[in-house]
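User: Here's a chain of 134 residues. Predict its fold as tokens.
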Amino acid sequence: MRAKVGLWIDHRKAIVVTVTDKGEEIVLVISAVEKQRRRSGDSPLKGPYEQQQVPADDRRQRTFTGHLTVYYDAVIACIGDAESILIFGPGEAKGELTKRLKRSDLGGRIAGVETVDKMTDRQIAAKVRRHFAQ
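Assistant: Prediction complete.
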């Protein structure tokens, strides 16, 4: 039997639970993504040249997207050999990852996508076991 994978994901971390005949394995993938970057300096107004000290929004968005690309590639590397993939989590990351998987060869292996709140590692593992036991 090939591996079945359950994946809880948000922009900060992903918890990958792999279920096989031999048991289950939990892998944590941490993201280095920081959504809201702060302005540097002591005060928000530094004078007429303050705009030059704050990065442009499009540059910050490109940096954010680049970090997410590296993060999603690391997650896909963890789930690449899965027979079936269950994706769940609280935010937008599950939808973004699903789109990336559909563009690749793994799109047909997605068993489901669900919106859930934050969960502990044990709750995530139990949810994955219940889903694939059916």
